[in-house]
Design brief:
77% helix; rod-shaped
Length: 150
Amino acid sequence: MIEWREVLLLFVGLALGYLFSLLFRRRQAARGDQAGTAKATENEGDSASVASFGQQLAEQLARYDLELEVSKLREDVAKLREEVAELRAARNVSPQYAEALGLARRGLSAQQIADRMGISLAEAELVHALSRGEELFKEPGFDELDRPPR
């Protein structure tokens, strides 16, 4: 599988090859006569386009590197948010059941929690229900602002 570094090296190699070919033609043109002078003016236009190509390539590579870094940072932020949510939940729970609550939030069933933690199935079911939080108590069709008056 071709990685992005290999593609980058290929582009850099192609750009260097092009630059060397332009340099070679320019030296030949400097040695030549009138026909060489015409080629030299043509090469000046080519060197400007090469510089523009090089600048565009550098900008695209920098943009690609930034996009990679941003995506990695977003993944890290998502992981940290999950950890913060677990820590907040654990803070509000008895230390005895904090690990069981963490297991329930990761999606383990009540039976698996009971087996792993050595607690009764009833306790595990209670922890499992608490881990789902307010989802169980929300009424369908009602938002926070649309609740009927009490």
